[in-house]
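Researcher: Here's my situation. A collaborator sent me these components and asked whether they could plausibly form a single complex. I don't have experimental data yet, so a predicted model of the whole assembly would be a useful starting point for our discussion.
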Amino acid sequence: MNDFNIIAEEGKARRGVLQTLHGKINTPAFMPVGTAGTVKGIFTDDLIKTGSEILLGNTYHLMLRPGSSEVKKFGGLHKFMNWDKPILTDSGGYQVFSLSKLRQISEEGVNFKSHIDGKNIFLSPETSMDIQTNLNSDIVMTFDECTPFPAEYQEAKSSMEMSMRWAERCHKYFYNINKNKLFGIVQGSTYEDLRKNSCEILTNLDFDGYAVGGLAVGEPQDQMFEVLDYTVPALPTEKPHYLMGVGKPDDIIGSVSRGIDMFDCVLPTRSGRNGQAFTKNGPINIRNSKFKKLDEPIDKNSTNPICRDYSAGYIHHLFNAKEMLGGMLLSLHNIYFYQDLMRDIRNAIENKTFKDFTEEFLVNYKS
Amino acid sequence: MNDFNIIAEEGKARRGVLQTLHGKINTPAFMPVGTAGTVKGIFTDDLIKTGSEILLGNTYHLMLRPGSSEVKKFGGLHKFMNWDKPILTDSGGYQVFSLSKLRQISEEGVNFKSHIDGKNIFLSPETSMDIQTNLNSDIVMTFDECTPFPAEYQEAKSSMEMSMRWAERCHKYFYNINKNKLFGIVQGSTYEDLRKNSCEILTNLDFDGYAVGGLAVGEPQDQMFEVLDYTVPALPTEKPHYLMGVGKPDDIIGSVSRGIDMFDCVLPTRSGRNGQAFTKNGPINIRNSKFKKLDEPIDKNSTNPICRDYSAGYIHHLFNAKEMLGGMLLSLHNIYFYQDLMRDIRNAIENKTFKDFTEEFLVNYKS
């Protein structure tokens, strides 16, 4: 069953609505990242006010602490963290490869040591499905191997092919235990034939949605766009397309124009905690002394509550005094910025003005 | 002009309303502490929802960073920090004596080095009035010397007498430059005759309110109550009585019963950041492993939004994972607890049930 409806299109850009058991998601959508059961420094009530309709939870972090069985006992991740809208969980794969120690990869899965307490843990396609089912995720991601970047052709090919075998195992296991959605993840590094082969394998399996993985790993933007240029057209048009871990505002706009519907990234919250604020003219660093005496909002073009109620000078002071409210305000400001951007993108596609919107945005935005 | 109206009394306990240019304060009142222009980890919108009607700003912290002239350029402390309700500022004296280095005290004032950058700063009764005027504080405190505890009689006497001469200088200077309120501070350590002498001097000067200073500095509760027993009756009954830096819930209840109307303390926010939550049965430490699996609120007797929306187990997880949301939630919970306590106290005095309320509260509350 396809719960994704495309209600407007302009070029390859799509304006859609994805239905889940916890409500609908207007796409193109940005998902704030709630690593360990919390979008860092933001109350869920405030997150709703930003227009966020879905957030991402990290399987790896939650399986280690407090444990997915524990979360299940609390009624699942939604109840645990007081968020009753949709949740997408990643598969744990990316963090196993980026955070954990002493990994042993086999066809069966990955043995690794927890980065928290060194405990031995085994993660496989099947256990990842079990964990994400315990979390009661609305959108479950297949468990895949994170191909290093850059990768030689043979390395990328072997890695993609194992991920596809794992995707098949996920598919086979998931639909017997879970009524939510499962998304497959395209791999294949920067090789067109591998990406297309991966798309074909996943499409034949038939998932509820398709993610492009293995990007946002350090490659330049034009290389990322090049991969999207040949990958997205090889995916079923009627299903949602999710670009994992992306990205900067201009990455998002360029990816929407290439047919991507969903995004997640830690950038707005992580940079907010570090004093970076997004504006329509590009990011600013609030610690810069030029903001010390500025009795104006961070972004005069914004009407979000942070810009309405607080001056740049005050937030500069909070960072200068190492007050946690500074990171709280900028994290929230940045999520507002991202969700306002997504709303503008959606409106522009509906009004067939997305091309003009893109040009105007990129003229003003200095990344 | 007296803007303080006592609308109910029970024994020495008073239920009043204090009018300021930024609105009214229902007493007995608890003032959250907004040290450096922020109540740590709490949005001002959320602070209002707790029932907080006034907060305390620290002259010492704000004069050093960002500087009181800077705050004035932002329209005063209310506008700077996005809080349009009343603000009381302390005089800076306490922090000069507890935080700064290389103090030189003379009749004229105090020379000290900033604990932030070592800069030489001079603070006197007159400069403290200027700074608090720049901040646009609704209730300004006189500049006094913080008498060490314990203090020998002669030391306490000399210190109190200098504070009284400084209070006179504050009084003389303040009313020429400021239309807000000035409170005098009673000193005299634990010596009845010194306290009474201090009350008499301040009463003759005639302030808008009177604070009891030099308590909550490490003395046992019964000694604090003993001082209040002979000090509060020596103050004008028609003016508000403020006990500085107090305290624990049972300190507050015992002090209200001795005629105190206003309180401030960092305890709810500081202990919240450290994982301590107040409940009607006493404080709990959320890090305790007994809360790990508890799918119930911190305080089953409370209806505040934190207890309504979050389990003890979730907040335990947040502290375990070092997530800043943990400190945010418990700080807010504790401010709710304090403001609920103050509301219960006010209702009890209005209903002449304060004595019963006190007995019942203290039976359940294990401090």
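Model: Some features of this prediction you could bring to your collaborator: DSSP finds 15 helices and 16 strands in chain B. The mean pLDDT of chain B is 96.
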